Amino acid sequence: MAALLDSDPRTVSGYTLHSRLGEGAYGVVYAATHARFGRVALKVLRPTLADIPQVRARLRAEAQALQRVQGNCTAAVLEVNADAPVPYLALELVEGLNLFQYVGTHGPFKGPILEALKDGLVEALASVHAANLVHRDLKPTNIMFGPAGVKVLDFGISVLLEVAANTGTDITLGTETWMSPEQAQGDPVGPASDVFNLGMVLAYAATGVHPFGAGKPAALVYRVVHERPNLAGVPSSVMAFVAQCLQKDALQRPDLRMHAVADRVEPPTVVDLGTGVPPLPPPSPLDRPFLIKFGFTALFVMFFFSVVKGGWQTSPAQSAAVVPNATVAVVPNATASVVPTATAAVVPTAIRVVVPTATTDSRRNGQGTETEADGAKYTGEFKDDMRNGQGTLKMADGSTYTGEFKYDEFNGQG
Questions:
Q1: N- or C-end of the chain: fewer Cβ atoms within 10 A?
Q2: Which is catalytic among the residues 6, 51, 119, 137?
């Protein structure tokens, strides 16, 4: 956090401003308090944007959609006011570290924590897309994690910059080094654009480097549009998913609705323990949002003890290099008491004799059956949680497809 400048207001429409959290093309973000909402992050639009009628109109139109986003992994939008003297958005104040801060301090994500990050980001974007919004600017500084788990910020905000640019205002759309090919070329963008950014962010989290390299933004954008990503060092557990996200053709990228773990609960298979031994009752569905929160809470606890208890010294120059456009400061208020509780909740479920159908780990691999919401039923080979290999898909209307499947789609062979 940074102190308020002399030019900063002290109050905005009933919000009392306390400090600066960050600044971007859309305006300034303040740490503020409100009688109804308590502590919030208040995004105040720049006067150059506030003076454009089309921007106010778009913000007014988007207000309900922004507040409809109700996910465990997105920062809640508490209030949107497009008609105030200075338009603003009041958001949940998220404590913790952004992705640049964590990777710059602790190094790349590994193992289960990387997969938890992937699951959290998939869930967040699925929530945004379910509200008919597109994030348009998913990047490491817009991804926070701490005591509340992983949280995605600033979804849907950059559309205001696009509206402003269409009026002839000199505005840069998005962040050049974190754009999908279609966004970089000025083409219309949809949810698939966010999926490409998701692939870039996960590759960065797993390796500590941008998958399209470094250098001048123009050179990097050229590589995004025309060259393959460098995925050396990305673990096999997420490699297939990241590679599919980074397809140049938007139609070849995965549908996040098929990967949102919070929305998919497979029927359990009861294991026969022998004659005269009754089967164990099925366990309650695994609470993946809880596991995501638990994983990042554990990270935050470790960070708390390493920083606060062990001491951490970073020069201003290093901080500027590691944390560009940081959104919030570290607020180490997590306690170790949450860990025993979380462990007790996870371990009993992990040792149940009841397992999900065709599951050998957190992803489906091997023979199995999947029934879709509309009644369609797939029986066949799974690989990395997707339909890959020989199988049969019987549609709700009675039609049947038998043959080769690839990345959940019928490949037309068979």
A1: C
A2: 137
Under 8 Å between Cβ of 392 and 383:
no
137 in active site = yes
- Per residue in 228-274, pLDDT (tens digit) is 999 999 999 999 999 999 999 999 999 998 876 544 444 433 333 34
Name which of 141, 108, 93, 109 is nearest 295 in CA terms: 109
Whole-angstrom CA distances from 392 to 43, 182, 252, 413 are 51, 35, 22, 12
Helical segments of 69-147, H only: 99-106, 111-130
Query: What confidence tens digit (pLDDT) does each residue in 305-357 have?
Result: 554 444 443 333 333 333 334 333 333 343 333 333 333 333 233 322 223 33
Beta-ladder partners of 2? 20
Total residue length of the chain: 414
Q: At what angle do helices 111-130 and 288-304 cross, to 10 degrees?
A: 120
Decide: 123 and 72 in contact? Cβ < 8 Å.
Answer: yes
